[in-house]
Amino acid sequence: MSEPLVVVGNGMAAARLVDELAKIALGRYAIAVVGDEPRLAYNRVLLSSVLAGETASHDIELKPAAWWRERGVTLKYGYRATEIDLGRRELKIANEESIAFSKLILATGSTPLRLNVSGADLAGVHTFRDSRDVDLLLTLAAQRKRVVVVGGGLLGLESAHGLAKAGAKVTLIHLMDRLMERQLDAPAAELLKSLVERKGIRVLLNANTARLQGETRVEGIDLADGRRIEADAVIFVAGIRPNIALAKDAGIPVNRGVVVDDHLQTGVPEIFALGECAEHRGICYGLVEPAYEQARVLARHLAGGADAYGGSVVATNLKVSGVSVFSAGDFMGADGSEAIVLSDASGGTYKKLVISDGRLTGAVLVGDVADALWYLELIRSRQPIARIRKGMMFGRSLVEAA
Length: 402
Ligand SMILES: Cc1cc2nc3c(=O)[nH]c(=O)nc-3n(C[C@H](O)[C@H](O)[C@H](O)COP(=O)(O)OP(=O)(O)OC[C@H]3O[C@@H](n4cnc5c(N)ncnc54)[C@H](O)[C@@H]3O)c2cc1C
Fold this sequence. Notes:
By secondary structure, the protein is an alpha/beta fold. Helix content is 25%, strand content 29%. It is built from eleven helices and 25 strands. The strands form seven sheets. The protein has a five-stranded parallel beta sheet with strand order 3-2-1-7-19, covered by helices on one side. A hairpin with a 6-residue loop joins strand 13 and strand 14 (220-223). Bound molecules: flavin-adenine dinucleotide.
């Protein structure tokens, strides 16, 4: 008889895990997936394209209903899991009967953070995480509202771009002195800022939100340095918090995320976690690629293999207003490393390759990202680059032709 395996969360990590598992151990488990969003799992990364009007919402579904059915998966979407009963090995679901499990997988993702400032709970203050948020933001944009996006990271830039393209008047404010400081060095961030501004998005740096103004609806933001920005709506895109409440309440060890080992197992046997809710070797990843790598390892482990997850080399590939940006590995350059840099501000191109111990260890590209995946492969494989070092900056085709 198939062993009952229950997955909590019907997001990107869950869908990939079921996909990987079905390929190698179909029939070994009776899989049930419980997710609280009222639709089939979709590609969350593409929500920005939906907001920008480049993709239709129904086109971002990861798998059609028939795909899940053919693999025998019991799908319960629109249902919230409320409690894990470890003693009875049951998952409780709001307004529903509990489901019994022999193995439980937590794939609950993250929740966007709201800044802890006065006015953060006013009407007109939103976040950007799921397709319901997109519907709401599209309504704001269609009314040509003045929208302030708080947060100049990857997601803040994508939201600002989508909102502006959909018709909103967008100001992007960021606490730090440069955009995407976790992925870009100063010259790359400066170039990105000017390219984004050219598209009509106002960008304010060193902008520390002191409070949100308004009686019942938000009317503006006061910055700590006295600046005031008028707003009809404010979108907080200033970080995420892993969804760990279910695990924590059940006594499963958590830190910032649900703590997992190299088999993605939590501190409780046969309970696993992956994706944004998981914390592996002290890291909670906020990107989809690590979630997919974890899904592959966990599926093989569940199928009886001896695979282990050693962590992910994080890479960022982003397109804002037609500006391509790529960043991977040690892009800032640790002590003892060297950098090869090509900078053409008016041409809209910046490239930096970081080298350490004769290997490529990091890269930042703005504008021209044609060789991004090749650089990523070089970083991940840690192969010596002495032979290709001279031509490496100018791309794979040049190196291979030499
Ligand atoms: C707009 C946007 C753009 C992004 N762009 C990029 C990008 O360009 N590149 C990139 O790498 N990453 C990007 N990301 C991040 C990427 O989407 C996430 O890393 C990825 O979705 C993580 O997958 P996950 O399954 O862990 O979480 P999720 O996809 O969030 O899935 C978790 C699911 O669990 C559900 N859930 C939570 N608690 C419960 C419960 N108690 N009961 C039932 N269900 C529950 C949630 O509702 C959600 O549906 C973007 C994210 C957003 C929001």
